[in-house]
Structures are given as C-alpha cells and as structure tokens.
C-alpha cells in the first residue's frame, strides 16, 4: 500500500526508448480507472483528460498504450511511486 504522501508518476516509452511522464492530470485519471475497474482489466481514454492525447487509449490488462485511429500499439506504460519525480524525469 502506498503512503498518502507518495507521488505516483505514470510514464510511457517513446520511439527513442525513453520513458516520458504523463501529466499529473493523466496520471490521476489512470489511477482512478485502476481503482474503479474490473480486476480483469479496463481501459483509459487519454483524450478525456488531455485533448492532445485523443487518439490514445491505455489497456489496463496489458498495460500498453494504443493509438485508436490506427490500432497500433504505441508502447508500454509504467508507474513509479515515491516522494519525487519518476525515472524519466
């Protein structure tokens, strides 16, 4: 269980092999979806939080990000919990 003071940072793997953080609002949405989803999985539509990410969806079962308009898997997603920034920051 995470401490109330812990910061959760969700990141995605870009085409250059670097982990990049999602915004705090997107990370919050991912966390909320995980808490409320079916244990077998669910999804997060990133465009509901950030219109620039409207083509993307995260499948919570596989923990992969997909581009909805092409169906292409973009990358894996990862979270880091701690008192400060994540691994890609």
Automatic annotation (TrEMBL):
Pathway: Protein modification; protein ubiquitination. Residues 1-79 form the WWE domain. It comes from the Eukaryota. Gene3D superfamilies: 3.30.720.50. GO terms for biological process: protein ubiquitination. SUPFAM superfamilies: WWE domain. Pfam families: WWE. GO terms for molecular function: zinc ion binding. InterPro entries: WWE-dom_subgr, WWE_dom, WWE_dom_sf. Signal peptide: none annotated. Transmembrane segments: none annotated. This is WWE domain-containing protein.
